[in-house]
Amino acid sequence: MADEYSSLRNELKLWEKEFQAQHSRKATPDDIRLVEGLANKYKRFKALSKNATKPSGPSTKSDNPAPAASSSILKRPKIVEDDRDPLPQK
Predict the structure, then answer these.
(1) What is the dihedral of CA 75, 81, 85, 86, to 10 degrees?
(2) pLDDT per residue rounded down to tens, the chain (90 residues)
(3) Are 51 and 4 in contact (CB under 8 A)?
(4) Cα separations (Å) of 76 from 59, 70, 71, 73, 81?
(5) What is the distance of C-alpha 47 from the center of its chain?
(6) What pTM, to 2 d.p., does this model score?
(7) Is there a contact between 48 and 4 (Cβ–Cβ < 8 Å)?
(8) How far apart are CA 75 and CA 87, in angstroms?
(9) In Å, how far are 20, 24, 60 from 15, measured between CA atoms?
(10) Hey, how many other C-beta atoms are within 10 angstroms of the C-beta on 57?
C-alpha cells in the first residue's frame, strides 16, 4: 500500500508540475476532470492517504496525549456594561 501511495503521489506531482509549466497556472478540478482517468487517481490517492493516517490498532488511554485546554479558558471575557456605575458625563 505504501508503494502505491508513493507511486501515485509522484505521478500526480509530476503531472501537476508539467501542467503548470505548460499553462503557467495551477490545475483546477475542471482541468483534472478533462484528463481521462486522472480524477480516479486523485480519488485513490486521497483514499490511501486517509488510510495511512488512521491508527493501526486500538488505542489505549496512555497512548492519547493530554487533553487540550478548554476553549473557554482561551476566550477573552466579554465586556459588560454596568448601569450602576455610569461614566461621568462631560
Answers:
(1) 130
(2) 789 999 999 999 999 999 999 999 999 999 999 999 999 999 999 999 888 776 665 655 555 555 555 555 566 656 656 566 566 665
(3) no
(4) 35, 13, 10, 8, 16
(5) 14
(6) 0.56
(7) yes
(8) 26
(9) 9, 13, 41
(10) 6
Q: Count Cα neighbours of 27 within 13 Å in the Cβ-side half-sphere.
A: 21
Residue 68's identity, in one-letter code, is: A
- Any idea which residue has 480516479 for its cell? 40
Rounded CA separation 36/34 (Å): 6
d(CA 63, CA 60): 5
Of 56, 35, 30, 41, which is closest to residue 4 (Cα–Cα)?
41
